[in-house]
């Protein structure tokens, strides 16, 4: 008998793991230890193997066959172990307690049972254990394609792509529990190539000995470098492991193409406010999850506020709920006090998708002549710590790409804004950025030069066009030899002629009569949503 390291209760050595896995609620031995039992066990250790195993004791042959047979039968009917057990029970019958039905653990030790569980944040305590409890992801719903693959035991290597708090880790753990595979969880921020290779070797041995596959869940796989991701290629392709990678970044940019082609990519949708509300209400109604009972301030109106505030992140929502419950029990606390205390840093990664998505939104808002939206995205980036020079460079691009020939002065304004940002810095340079953003939004638009340049680039993609010979009269002739070869001959210098007009061909012979320049400042398509207005 051993003492559990968590609850200090007596448990048989063979049952210790099952006892701990059940949160110290099962496999508890109710028989008190006995000094005499301990002594018998110690003495049995030094006895011969025969008596310890309860085998018959051999006796020397007697003078008659009948006496010998009778003696052996008498010993066989009563093994030594039974004799000792019966003797112990007869001598100390009061030591063995009467069995108690539905015995409950002592109340004083109850907090120790869930010590690790209570130490975890609310988001971890509320983590779903089955796919039925996962909220808001159709992929693992009753008719979801991923759930169908799991139920058929055909789990492929996959990349789970979704925002924070959408259920990537939860789904991976549920998959492992459903298929019964060996599950290994690693994190790219703390696991190196050496550790991965060790796990691969263990997985290969497990597969060879027991036939059981290994699922490796790699959180934040996009933080692995491309060379580190190479280590997964062989084991994934050979089927030695099933890789489940989780990432918040676009895998097309962050996961190596060779690894991405060997995995299926599943996109997890951002949770809606209704999904978040259901998760929060489940946490409030689940017994024993919250450390303290919420006050009346934590009502449906505050739950809706938290759902909207978390912006589709279930982990953030549950942590905010835990904070709200704690604050609500303070004396003289109002609902406004709770809302004021719930601060949240803007989710913005200067090296990730948010970085490019937000600058793209700014550019397209200016292109659409919407100064209000453009200022919103500008303020959002600056507030989140974006490099103002990065924004200023994009404004210079907008001045030529979208305003272009419609107002040539905007390019001068944009370059002046870049200089101002470079010289002044934050926070004052935000004023110059706002000035330029509004001016570009309100300026007339022309993509004529931009589209014409794209036409020239498209022509270079045609066979042979990129290497067409330059007309001889347009070639530079800095040396005597080149002049003798006719370079620059017959070239007509335009300023020498009236109004600079001459008859002269500038395009290669194969491209004569090709026109790249667009005639219109903007396109000619009509938005069907505007028809009839």
Q: In CATH terms, what is the architecture of the largest domain?
A: 3-Layer(aba) Sandwich
Cα(first) to Cα(last) distance is: 85 Å
Strand residue content: 5-15%
Helical segment tally?
26
Provide the CATH superfamily of the largest domain.
P-loop containing nucleotide triphosphate hydrolases
Give me a quick take on this structure.
By secondary structure, the chain is mainly alpha-helical.
Give a structural overview.
This protein has 533 residues and is mainly α. The chain has four domains: 2-91, no CATH class; 137-267, 3-Layer(aba) Sandwich (Rossmann fold); 273-341; 353-446, Up-down Bundle (Zinc Finger, Delta Prime, domain 3). The chain has 26 helices and seven strands. It has helices spanning 16-21, 35-45, 49-52, 65-76, 80-91, 110-113, 115-119, 122-125, 145-151, 168-179, 193-210, 226-229, 233-238, 251-254, 257-260, 273-285, 300-309, 314-328, 335-341, 353-367, 371-383, 388-403, 409-424, 429-442, 448-460, 480-484; strands spanning 2-3, 10-11, 158-161, 182-187, 214-219, 241-247, 264-267. Strands 4-5-6-3-7 form a five-stranded parallel sheet, with helices on both faces. It has a two-stranded antiparallel sheet with strand order 1-2. Helix 16 crosses helix 18, helix 20 packs antiparallel against helix 21 and helix 22 (388-403) packs parallel to helix 24 (429-442). The chain is elongated.
Write the topology of this structure.
Blueprint: E1 2-3, E2 10-11, H1 16-21, H2 35-45, H3 49-52, H4 65-76, H5 80-91, H6 110-113, H7 115-119, H8 122-125, H9 145-151, E3 158-161, H10 168-179, E4 182-187, H11 193-210, E5 214-219, H12 226-229, H13 233-238, E6 241-247, H14 251-254, H15 257-260, E7 264-267, H16 273-285, H17 300-309, H18 314-328, H19 335-341, H20 353-367, H21 371-383, H22 388-403, H23 409-424, H24 429-442, H25 448-460, H26 480-484
Parallel strand pairs: 3-6, 3-7, 4-5, 5-6
Antiparallel strand pairs: 1-2
Helix pairs in contact: 16-17, 16-18, 17-18, 20-21, 20-22, 21-24, 22-23, 22-24, 23-24
């Amino acid at each position: 008998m051993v003492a559990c390291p968590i609850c200090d209760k007596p448990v048989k050595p063979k049952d210790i793991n099952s006892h701990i896995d059940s949160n110290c609620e099962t496999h508890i031995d109710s028989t008190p230890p006995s000094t005499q039992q301990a002594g018998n066990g110690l003495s049995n250790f030094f006895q011969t193997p025969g008596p310890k195993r309860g085998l018959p004791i051999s006796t020397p042959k007697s003078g008659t066959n009948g006496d010998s047979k009778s003696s052996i039968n008498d010993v066989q009917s009563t093994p030594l172990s039974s004799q000792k057990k019966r003797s112990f029970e007869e001598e100390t019958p009061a030591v063995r307690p009467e069995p108690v039905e539905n015995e409950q653990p002592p109340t004083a030790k109850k907090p120790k049972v869930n010590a690790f569980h209570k130490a975890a944040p609310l988001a971890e305590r509320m983590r779903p254990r089955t796919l039925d409890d996962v909220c808001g992801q159709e992929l693992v719903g009753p008719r979801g394609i991923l759930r169908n693959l799991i139920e058929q035991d055909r789990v492929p290597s996959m990349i789970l792509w979704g925002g924070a708090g959408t259920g990537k880790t939860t789904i991976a753990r549920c998959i492992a529990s459903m298929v019964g595979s060996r599950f290994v969880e690693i994190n790219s921020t703390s696991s190196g190539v050496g550790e991965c290779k060790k796990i691969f070797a263990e997985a290969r041995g497990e597969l060879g000995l027991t036939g059981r596959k290994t699922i490796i869940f790699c959180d934040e796989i996009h933080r692995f470098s491309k060379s580190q991701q190479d280590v997964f290629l062989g084991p994934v392709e050979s089927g030695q492991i099933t890789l489940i990678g989780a990432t918040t970044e676009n895998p097309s940019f962050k996961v190596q193409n060779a690894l991405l082609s060997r995995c299926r990519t599943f996109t997890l949708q951002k949770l809606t406010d209704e999904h978040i509300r259901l998760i929060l209400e489940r946490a409030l109604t689940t017994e024993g999850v919250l450390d303290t009972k919420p006050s009346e301030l934590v009502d449906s109106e505050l739950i809706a506020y938290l759902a909207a505030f978390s912006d589709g992140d279930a982990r953030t929502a549950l942590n905010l709920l835990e904070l709200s419950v704690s604050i609500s029990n303070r004396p003289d606390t109002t609902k406004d006090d709770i809302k004021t205390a719930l601060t949240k840093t803007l989710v913005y990664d200067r090296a990730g998708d948010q970085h490019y998505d937000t600058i793209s939104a700014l550019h397209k808002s200016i292109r659409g002549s919407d100064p209000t939206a453009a200022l919103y995205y500008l303020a959002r980036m600056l507030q989140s710590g974006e490099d103002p020079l990065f924004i200023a460079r994009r404004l210079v691009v907008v001045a030529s790409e979208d305003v272009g020939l419609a107002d040539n002065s905007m390019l001068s304004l944009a370059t002046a804004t870049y200089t101002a940002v470079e010289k002044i810095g934050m926070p004052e340079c935000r004023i110059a950025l706002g000035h330029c953003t509004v001016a570009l939004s309100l300026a007339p638009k022309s993509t004529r030069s931009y589209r014409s340049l794209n036409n020239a680039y498209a022509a270079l993609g045609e066979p042979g066009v990129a290497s067409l010979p330059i007309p001889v009269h347009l070639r530079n002739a800095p040396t005597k030899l080149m002049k003798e070869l006719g370079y620059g001959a017959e070239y007509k210098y335009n300023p020498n002629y009236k109004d600079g007009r001459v008859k002269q061909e500038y395009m290669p012979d194969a491209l004569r009569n090709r026109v790249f320049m667009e005639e219109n400042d903007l396109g000619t398509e009509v938005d069907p949503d505007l028809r009839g207005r």
